[in-house]
Write a structure and sequence with these properties.
The structure holds two protein chains of two kinds. Chain A has helices spanning about 70-75, 105-115, 130-140, 145-160, 160-165, 180-190, 210-220, 235-240, 260-265, 270-275, and strands at about 10-15, 25-40, 45-55, 60-65, 85-95, 100, 115, 195-200, 225-230, 245-250, 250-255. By secondary structure, chain A is α/β, with parallel strands linked by helices. The model of chain A is unreliable at about 1-5 (pLDDT under 50).
């Protein structure tokens, strides 16, 4: 396998439903490639030889029953699992052709480029402004207060939150509603200029309207970011994603375009899960 | 809040309208080919319009399936999508009937002209109006217009029977021209089928807008119980 050299491959996909006369196969660059990725929590093997390709500026959903390894896999993509003692990784994960588990890689830098949004939103116990400015400041992305203000405003706009908080930037972030806090966490991630966003059940704690807002936001964000979203809500995966990967018992059972997965999957296990016949 | 789903519904509707315009055009051109003994028009229906209509037929079903599978539409959205699947099917069949008429036109042009059957252009005019009104009713969600289309179907059926009798009389009187007469009988049958499909579309529009199924002559009840 390539160790030091850059590694980029192109995947062919047919455009999603378009006018008959416009359809053609296009090449789509890959953002991430996992090769034979296995993961162990001490003696327990949580991921078994995962081989997966994540397309750039697409939304990939990871679905599967509880305990199937989808969240573990997600965390492996920005080395969040490193923070858990007793864990071991085998195999490779390439982002933009570079192996993220190579010794030369700084995991902190990685986590800035590959941001993470958690199921339970976790804003800092600071003001709305400070939540977004904090990362910008410690990374020295702004040369002046004016520039910092600009970045904060843009991040909040990109997270579809600006209009709701523009008059209360100095108020505590903890005073925002659940949906607003989650969008604040997204703004916080966006402020440090990632190119990929990992979202672990970002809307499961939210009511239907807040969920719809987050879903619309995710659909808008894919114009500029590669997004991978873990969700136990299959309908959400169907609404939002371009590609869907079905995990089961630590293995990647099937991955394909979302429309194919939800209308005509190749594997029976996938179909059983999607139709609710499973367990 | 803007929803990507709304964009996809709009796209589905837009593509449906494009297909409807092609079908209306195909019907018009095949009738032109017939009335003016114009081979070129008839050939264009077969060679150019039909392939496009067939491709759209596949595309529209695929779009609708994708919306159902991925967006879990409810209520008015669900009725809209299932109605477009049905209307799509009727439109494609209307396209086929237009092609059949175009083929009749080519056959007729190849033979010496027959005494014009006045009732065919009349029947054609009513049929084309029914098609136009059914499609307008779909665009404007106009259930009143749709109901009128449904009511006119009987008139078209009567014309077909009338033309049938006229042409049989002609064939008996003039056996030299049986082939042309048969072609014209087939054309009247094509028109009657097109009118049936327009009626189906009108019924689907009523279901789509009101959620009421008036098929199979339940329309009398629908008319009486006006809201």
């Amino acid at each position: 396998m390539n160790t030091g050299t850059t590694y980029r491959k192109l995947a062919i996909e047919v455009m999603p439903v378009t006018k008959a006369e416009d359809r053609k196969a296009v090449e789509v660059p890959l953002k991430m490639v996992a090769e034979n990725l296995s993961f162990f929590y001490r003696q327990t093997q949580a991921l078994r030889g995962i081989n997966i390709q994540i397309k750039e500026k697409h939304i990939t959903a990871l679905i599967g029953p509880s305990g199937c390894g989808k969240s573990t896999f997600l965390r492996a993509l920005n080395r969040m699992n490193d923070l858990i003692p007793g864990t071991r990784v085998e195999g490779r994960v390439y982002i933009d052709g570079q192996d993220i588990y190579a010794k030369s890689v700084d995991p902190i830098l990685l986590r800035r480029k590959v941001g993470m949004i958690f199921q339970k939103s976790n804003p800092f116990p600071k003001s709305v402004y400070e939540n977004v400015a904090y990362g910008v400041r410690i990374n020295r992305y702004a040369q002046s207060k004016a520039e910092l203000d600009e970045i904060v405003e843009k991040s909040l706009q990109d997270a579809a939150l600006w209009d709701e908080v523009r008059d209360r930037l100095d108020s505590s972030a903890l005073g925002l509603s659940g949906g607003q806090q989650q969008r604040l966490c997204i703004a916080r991630s966006l402020a440090v200029k990632p190119d990929t966003l990992l979202m672990d059940e970002p809307a499961s704690a939210l009511d239907p309207i807040s969920t719809a807002k987050i879903e619309e936001l995710i659909l808008d964000l894919k114009k500029r970011y590669t997004i991978i979203i873990v969700t136990h809500n299959m309908q959400q995966a169907a609404r939002v994603s371009d590609c869907t990967a079905f995990f089961f018992m630590g293995e990647l059972v099937e991955m394909d375009s979302t429309i194919k997965m939800f209308t005509n999957p190749s594997r029976k296990e996938t179909e059983d899960y999607i139709t609710g016949r499973f367990g | 809040m803007h929803r990507h789903f709304e964009d996809q519904l709009d796209e589905l509707k837009e593509r449906m309208l494009f297909m409807s315009s092609l079908v209306e055009k195909a019907i018009g051109m095949s009738l032109d080919g017939l009335n003016h003994r114009d081979e070129a028009q008839a050939t264009r229906v077969i060679a150019e319009l039909e392939p496009q209509i067939n491709e759209l037929h596949l595309e529209l079903d695929e779009r609708a399936l994708q919306l159902l599978a991925l967006q879990q539409p409810m209520a008015v959205d669900l009725r809209f999508i299932t109605s477009t699947i049905k209307i799509n099917s009727d439109l494609e069949r209307m396209g086929d009937q237009a092609v059949n008429m175009a083929q009749r036109a080519l056959s007729i042009v190849a033979q010496p002209p027959l005494q014009p059957v006045i009732d065919i252009p009349r029947m054609a005019a009513i049929t084309q109006k029914m098609v136009k009104d059914a499609l307008d009713a779909f665009v404007r969600r106009d259930t009143e217009l749709a109901r009128q289309v449904v009511l006119r179907d009987d008139e078209v059926d009567s014309y077909r029977d009338l033309i049938f009798r006229e042409l049989i009389a002609q064939m008996i009187k003039d056996p030299q021209h049986i082939l042309q007469a048969l072609d014209l009988i087939l054309v009247s049958r094509n028109l009657e089928r097109i009118a049936d499909h327009a009626t189906n579309i009108a019924e689907d529009v009523i279901y789509m807008v009101l959620g009421r199924d008036i098929r199979h002559h339940a329309e009398e009840k629908a008319l009486v119980k006006d809201e």
